[in-house]
Amino acid sequence: MHEGGPVPGRECGACDVCCVVFEIREPAIAKAAGERCRHLTRCGCAIYETRPQTCRKWLCGWRLIPGLPENWRPDLSGILVYQTPCMETGYGPDAFVVALSRGPAHLDDTSLLGFVQNMVELRVPLYLTLHSGKAEGSSVFLNNILGPPVRSKDGAAFIAILARQIEKLQQPG
Ligand code: SF4
Ligand code: SF4
Does 39 sit in the ligand 2 pocket, CB within 6 Å? Predict the structure, then answer.
């Protein structure tokens, strides 16, 4: 989906979501999920020129996928998309995660709903998780549970299922 490298014109700018949300085991960073990287300053990465390979290799979906909306920079939209191995049978090896920071408020975003619908229609494996600048919680595989309403074009059922999944992901434990 993004063999062409970074999308021209999209820069991280003031976004630092991926420097906070993820656990990074690289010894030079060694941080827990949800913890700010020790090298992260108000002006960005203090060791940008010498940052470890882990950081050099990683870009979020917004930086890589031209089809994602221009206004989906993760810190501004609350939507973080990234690639992950697919753990489900009957699907390809590469899946995507959509990690939301604003809970059910995202259900008013037609661009997000359209993205999820397209992924399900195209059988691109998609996981949903939540984050709030802190560690991500558990995730749910969306394709199977959203397949029926997408196939029957039942928008109300589609949103109700998504809302229920967000509610479940918000519950502690
Ligand atoms: S989440 Fe994406 S846009 Fe934000 S800093 Fe990371 S790579 Fe850049
Ligand atoms: S080293 Fe720099 S790029 Fe890597 S996580 Fe820390 S602040 Fe972000």
Answer: yes
Would the CB of 37 count as within 6 Å of ligand 2? yes
Q: Relative to the CA of 40, which ligand 2 atom is closest?
A: 7
Q: Is residue 55 part of a domain?
A: no
Q: Note whether residue 86 is domain-resident.
A: yes
Q: Is 45 in the pocket of ligand 2 (CB under 6 A)?
A: yes
What is the side-by-side strand order in the sheet with 94-100? 79-85, 94-100, 126-130, 139-141
Residue 159's domain spans which residues?
60-170
| CA of residue 108 to ligand 1 center, whole Å | 23
Q: Which pLDDT value is given to residue 103? A: 93
Contact, 42 vs 36, CB < 8 A?
Answer: no
pLDDT tens track for 128-141: 999 865 555 689 99
Is residue 29 assigned to a domain?
Answer: no
Would residue 116 count as lying in a domain? yes
pTM above 0.90, yes or no: yes
